[in-house]
Amino acid sequence: MCMVFSQSCLCPCFSGGFWLGVDQEGMTGNLSLTGVFFGVVASACVSLNAIFTKKVMPAVDGNIWKLSYYNNINACVLFLPLILLFGELGSLASFSRSSDLKFWGMMTLGGVFGFAIGYVTGLQIKFTSPLTHNVSGTAKACAQTVIAVVYNSSSKSLLWWTSNMMVLGGSSAYTWVKSLEMKKTPQRVPPDSAKEKLLPEEKGNLGV
């Protein structure tokens, strides 16, 4: 219970850091309400995806390869009506680089990396929790933002840096608390029904 309480106390740190970052963008006049809206909706979808991934894991026997296969098949099927709905079929037909090997090579490489990210995401959700996956994703995005600002030598206010440090600091603290929780969790012994079945010759030796 103590670990769960500690994790719950760290969640407002992420939210506070995000809110402060949005507030600082508003102070500079670069805040887009549309961007904030779609950002929040995207975050909600990522969270729901992690939750449902954890729920359907038993349906694929915890097999990440099988889960990744189903996800990619679903994505291919769902994209077809969207292509027709948004009128992208004409753009695809008139695309000038449809026979360019370099283009298809880059598309294939992007697909491989995308599949790898999906596989690692499934592994992370399987062995930790949806909340841990969301925290790590937030920390990754925040770290990328800080690296981009430093690389481009952009000028940011003290509160902007504070907001990012809140998110990164809260993520680091969550990781530490979660690792302590996982170390204290006892190894569960599988029930008899889940144990490996004995070979026929081993069954005959049980009475010896």
UniProtKB/TrEMBL annotation:
Region of interest (Disordered), residue spans: 186-208
Recorded superkingdom: Eukaryota
Keywords of the record: Membrane, Transmembrane, Transmembrane helix
Cellular localization per UniProt: Membrane
Keyword Nucleotide-binding set for record: no
GO annotation, cellular component aspect: membrane
Topology class, membrane: Multi-pass membrane protein
PANTHER family: SOLUTE CARRIER FAMILY 35 (PTHR11132)
Name of the protein in its database record: GDP-fucose transporter 1
Source organism (scientific name): Notothenia coriiceps
Gene name as annotated: slc35c1
